[in-house]
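Pilot study result, target chain (851 residues):
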Amino acid sequence: MKLQFHKKGIPTNILKRMAVLFVVFIISVVFFEIITNISESVKVSKQSDATLPIVSINFLGDASTELHGYVNEMDPAYMRDAIIPLDSERNVNISIQCKDFDVDSLEYAILSLDTQRNISKNKLNFNKKGDIITASFQAENLIEKNEEYLLVLTIKNDEREVYYYTRIMQPEGCNEEEILDFAQYFHKTALSDDAGDLATYIEPDPYTTSEDLSHVTINSSLSQVAYGTFDGKQVGDVRVSLTDISTNYITLTFNYLLTRKNDDKSEYYTCSEDFRIRYTADRIYLLAYDRTMEQLLDEDSVVIKNNLLNIGITDPNVQYLSNETGTIVSFVQNGSLYEYNQTDRKMKEIFTFVDDPTDPRLTYDQHQVLLLNIDESGTMDYVVYGYMNSGNHEGQCGINLFHYDAINDVSTEQVFITTSSSYQILNANFSELLYETADNDFYIMVNGTLLYMSLNELTTKELMTGLDDAQYAVSGSRRYLAWMDEATVAEVIHIMDLETGSSFDIKANEGEVLKPLAFIEDDFIYGAVKKNDIMVDGAGSTIYPMYKLTISGISTGKAYEQKTYQKSGYYINNIDLESYTIYLDRIKIDADGTILPAEEDTIKNSVGEQNKAVPINTAMDDVKQQVVIFSMTPLEEDEKLGKVDYEMTGLVLADESRTVSVASATSSTQYFVYVGSKVSLATDDLISAIAEADANMGIVLDNEPKYVWKRGRKSYQNTITGIAVGSSDSEASGMARALSAMLVHEGENVQVHNLIESGETPISILSRTLKGYDILDLTGASLTQVLYYVNLGNPVYAYTGDDTAVLIVGYDAANIIYFDPLTNTNSKMGISDASEYFEQFGNVFVSYINE
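Predicted structure:
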């Protein structure tokens, strides 16, 4: 019998298996610890609450303007949210909702509008009752009536200083109280059950029918003005901002919140009303009215049925991106960012400042969200720019870059770029150039500076500075940049692929120069100018007429021509892009070298915008009227939508090392068009600025800032006196005599004819002689537009061909009055006839304003 012996304990093969499992366990524990430590080092949070006080300045009885605080000193010249009208005693009454913010001291400063003169600076005594602080002061009698001044309030405690900016004016003959009363009447009547009386003041377009409450104008129907079937009620008080005060008209803005019940749940809507009103002894005229209304989305207000996402009342031109399969859409609404994932049945709130719609600090609408890209999973990059209502950058103005990881459902702050300009200036100047590469390199153009940032190494570098708008163009994907080194035209245009960092050049033919114009998607548009065609117009400005336009593809690393435009006898002055159509601003040049306007031409892209995976449509709602709907990919035939979860995305905030500041480096004068309190255009082209302001009843300021043009001139201007040709130019050409008369009017008597003979131009002569004035080349403006300068008491030089010119020195409702320097007499001409007359000489005008 053979004996078998067994070892005591666990068999060897079992021990080996246990050893392997133990090693795996240890490795897993170590790996878990590493992952845990990494996770712990990244703090996922949510947007912190608003903490800064709101300052209210009360005026005209029950009206008040709200000011929001900045933790850094801003450029006060561009802080133009409102004007506070002072009473006859120049009293300023202040109320501060401080809540948990401790206030140790309060002071004010009054400055001239260009910030060059300090009127006063004083500390204020204040009273505190609960969470409310009140204070008042009397502005110094150094301020002049109907003149704007800057008011800066500073709140201090042991930890920080907070700055508040506005403008003040002591109006005289402006009827501000009557105009405010009318605006309040109009606002309340529109919200009432009987708005019929408002029909007297609006101008409905009989050929347009719309039930869109997101945008209502003076040309909308009475039903739209009266909110149609919408049953919302106002929450809280109206926040009033007077934005422009003059003896001719006043513009003002009302901001307020509406709410309505929907299945016992509250929906909220932000509203803004812009008025332009003129008061006369006979009646009040509503010159312009513009109202916007937008729904605040939350868990209770989003409506999803089958494959349709209903986002309620908002602008149909919603900014959004979708994945290629149409199952995910990200969109911006009311300054917040959302993403809907139909496959996962999740609606996500990616970024918002608003957790309490009734807190005006959170609904303050001086910021915007810009989507940069999205992938198939819903991961995307986006930018929040403007005033930061809350969070770790509360009270700052800047540009915040985020990366949203859809897999982990986290938004990570990558960099914050601070600025001292207001949101309106930042928004108007906001470059199309923002691009993040696959290697986490970030490019952004800020105030003419191309900034490169390595988001991995936290390094920054200025690649270019001092670029003006006319020097560069950015592709639709933001991946390609085209620029020239010179200010106007160049023999070489550089093209850079920001993704790869590679670049190449487009070179002009012999005897030609080039001008970068724009992109259509990633196809580059540029113009060619023959050097022999470059000329000087009657005002002395250099004209670069483009004889040919080229559209080139550039994605292969070199330019390949796709289309050219060239027509004999015509030149291209500029282009304008709208959707997929290029509008050509064309000119002709006659035998005498006079530049004449020509009819516009167009180039259309036959391909156009491709169908989007998630189309956007509108539909009618019984209460809200027009609503906006995303059409996602249709569900399968037997598929049910089921429950959709509403989630708030986590936020990973960056530390201070990821905050950078970029100074302005643009080299030219910029012009800003204000329509109400909003900047609708920032440009270095004065004529474009005037045209924009004229079309929208706005104003033009430069970057000092000072007023350059206003729509609201007087209906007549008496003939400007003191116009006479200088004795040394009495036998000179008409051009020389006209310039001489302008200079004599300003107390300057020089030999203009000698300057012209030496090669000087009207612009250069006026610039070198009239010190303390800004000389304005108004070539291309209309006659009615240049009459604004006559309204100021400044003559306007008008070229009339063959070295001759006249001065426009007055006008009334039907005529202009012009000074003929060849006869030394004033004459009248009908405005219509005069417009045609000057147009045949190219509408070459020159005038000036005080610096």
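One observation from the pilot: DSSP finds eleven helices and 59 strands in the chain. A full batch analysis is planned for the follow-on phase.
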